[in-house]
Request: fold
Amino acid sequence: MLGLALHTTSPQLGLMLQSVDGGDHVVERHQVWDLGRDVSSHLHVKLMEFISPYTWQDLSYVAVAKGPGGFTGTRVGVVAARTLAQQLEIPLFGVSTLAALAISAQTSGSISKEIAVTMPAKRGETFGAIYRPDGSELVPILEDQVLPEAEWTQQLEHWKRPLVRLQTAMGEGIASSVVGVSAIAHTQYQKGLRPDWSSVTPFYGQHPVVNR
Reply:
């Protein structure tokens, strides 16, 4: 059986399939496409092509990057993941975009310090979170939030423990952290967690329209 991860919070689409249990044939593959504003119109086709030769019935769970990120892309990914999980009656894991970036960095670099993830938001604000590595998992020390850039910078400068600072742009490269989305969901699934599809909602952080 397999776990499927989706990442649509940027102009790219990231997908990953990962075996749930060990065996003679282990599946672990991911792919990223630059789709721009066309994620919603191409997502279903890309999903069908990507999971082949497997079928929806081969899935044990779905995972999705729930934001922060672009408003439309994040919504499209979460809605698609919720629909799949509901129709297949399988668990759905909603994973923070920032946590996925942090776990990807921690896995590739064997980081032992706390990880501060920074991603620019709109209107001079910043998305930020801080995580502490704990074996193969991350413990959120400071939950995902959006705040003025100067305030976030000040928090990091006055943080009392050593930090690894991970800063990323809102765009190209983020979807490759679908590997992190898959890793976090896989760990939680192996621990016996089975979240219902209805528990996963997008985290936008900001409203796309400013009321003046």
